[in-house]
């Protein structure tokens, strides 16, 4: 179960947009013009994204410019190191993820790819940069699946577990 959740979470959370201002959050909630625009430009490195999926809850993912990423997954007390890249399968754009050598996760060392369209559909909000310092491998606290960090601005009544 964790393997499948991490694969889906990784494919959903590799959403990034370059930015240097780490103070302003962008609301890209359900069907907003901002969400649609951001989803179309995904992925661009240097952004932390909040996504939501039924059965998983909220996930936070920082995408670094060098093909690395870190996942703040519900119920886990440390950041999960990932690697990401874009690919294609026939005419379909894909986002591919793997957990590097020495990782404790079950995703594996081979890249696992999912539809980029599916990944884009889970975007809830974004923050520029790495405001939670996930690239250190640490998380600020252990989150529950239905708890989104307060710094993300979005219509919280439109999402939930």
How would you summarize the topology of this molecule?
Elements: H1 2-13, E1 26-27, H2 33-41, E2 47-53, E3 57-63, E4 68-72, E5 80-89, E6 92-98, E7 112-115, H3 116-121, E8 123-128
Antiparallel strand pairs: 1-8, 2-3, 2-8, 3-4, 4-5, 5-6, 6-7
Description:
An eight-stranded antiparallel β-sheet has the order 1-8-2-3-4-5-6-7. β3 and β4 (68-72) form a beta hairpin. It is built from three helices and eight strands; from the N terminus they run αβαββββββαβ. It is an alpha+beta fold and 161 residues long. Helix content is 17%, strand content 30%.
Largest sheet: 8 strands, antiparallel
The strands making up the biggest β-sheet line up spatially as: 1-8-2-3-4-5-6-7
Strand-pairing-aware structural class: alpha+beta
List how many beta strands DSSP finds: 8
Number of helices: 3
Mean pLDDT: 77
Question: Helicity range of the residues?
Answer: 10-25%
Q: Tell me what portion of residues adopts beta-strand conformation.
A: 25-35%
Q: Report how far the terminal alpha carbons are from each other.
A: 18 Å
List low-confidence stretches.
1-30
In N-to-C order, the SSE pattern is HEHEEEEEEHE
- Name the shape in a single word: globular
């Amino acid at each position: 179960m964790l393997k499948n959740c991490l694969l889906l979470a990784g494919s959903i959370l590799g959403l990034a947009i370059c930015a240097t201002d780490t103070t302003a959050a962008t609301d890209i909630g359900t069907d907003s013009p901002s969400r649609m625009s951001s989803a179309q430009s995904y992925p661009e490195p240097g952004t932390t994204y909040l996504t939501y999926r039924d059965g998983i809850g909220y996930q936070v993912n920082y995408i670094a410019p060098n093909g690395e990423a870190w996942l703040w997954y519900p119920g886990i007390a440390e950041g999960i190191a990932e690697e990401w890249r874009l690919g294609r399968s026939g005419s379909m754009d894909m986002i591919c993820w793997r957990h590097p050598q020495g990782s404790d996760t079950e995703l594996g060392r081979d890249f696992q790819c999912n539809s980029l369209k599916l990944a884009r559909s889970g975007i809830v909000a974004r923050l520029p940069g790495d405001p939670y310092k996930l690239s250190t491998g640490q998380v600020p606290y252990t989150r529950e699946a239905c708890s989104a960090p307060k710094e993300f601005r979005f219509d919280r009544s439109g999402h939930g577990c």
